[in-house]
Amino acid sequence: MSEEPLLKVEGLTTEFTTDNGTLTAVDGIDFEINRGETLCLVGESGSGKTVASESITRIVPTPPGEVSGSVVFDGQEITAMSESELRGIRGGRVAHVFQNPQDALNHCYTVGWQIVEAIQTHDPDVTKQEARERAIELLSDVGVANAAARLDDYPHEFSGGQKQRVMIAMALVTNPDLLIADEPTTALDVTVQAQILNLLEDIQDKYDMSILFVTHDLGVVAGIADEVVVMYAGKVMERGGVHEIFDNPSHPYTRALLECLPGKARSAEGIPGSLPSPINPPDGCRFAPRCDYAVEECRAGDQPPEEPLSENHAVSCVHYQQGYDPSVVRGEATQGDDATAGGVTSD
């Protein structure tokens, strides 16, 4: 019997009440993360991936937000937990690293004070001296040079990449089982981005944890992911192992994202058009209004069901249903090897 996934999400839906109507940011998505695995949620800004990641531990503001569906973490249904029960999971067994460390750190306090506070919040029996020693160890683990001396520096004395390392250190305070990293490299230059990605791989091995990595950059995905879920306008377009996604991209949206990598066909102009309104989304496939291959059936009913292409690869597209010809959307413009080379830094 196979081991149960660490995280199992089913029918996750997150809606916000606005003056203009109900905004559905995440619309009934499913995914699983196994122990020790990295799953990447990928999509353009506004696709719902950040809201999905924040809905897992219910840090979405309520109201105006409302989260429904099932989120099972290590056999426990998170959506059924009280706020006090959830605090034992959130920030403990599940930790978040957010996109902009500049905003996440308090610039009135030293980084050491902030890490020590996090340690003692989760374990009040730890003395301040023990917490400081643990903070130095964590800063060393994330590659902050001369950690003991830097402990009493303020956030403004750190570079952007160093601030992100501090945020990762704070996330590791409780030795989490799952780290949710929301675009942690977006604000960093390419060289520092590669260093942070390598750091995440190193600490994943050391701490034996799973990672949910949120990004819009498929180039980043190729270097770190085990599994990939491609989101668009709150829906899942395609899912599969990283090799399936890069070697055999099957949804027109996935292919379009790959063509936006540096040196590819769409790298300069991007994907024509814009995401649909989350308040009044189109019928049928959410991507149909921007899709070069959309037919009448793509614009009617609900989002097409996911069609299995292999044991570990599925796509939500009518062209893969019985009676259609999937070769229509599977040209030779994007090849897996070329796409991978376009945006990945391995060192």
TrEMBL record:
UniProt cross-references to Gene3D superfamilies, sorted A to Z: P-loop containing nucleotide triphosphate hydrolases
Membrane topology according to the record: Peripheral membrane protein
Region (Disordered): 328-347
InterPro entries per the UniProt record, alphabetical: AAA+_ATPase, ABC_Ni/Peptide_Import, ABC_transporter-like_ATP-bd, ABC_transporter-like_CS, Oligopep_ABC_C, P-loop_NTPase
Domain ABC transporter: 7-258
Gene Ontology molecular function, alphabetical: ABC-type nickel transporter activity; ATP binding
The protein, known as: Nickel import system ATP-binding protein NikD
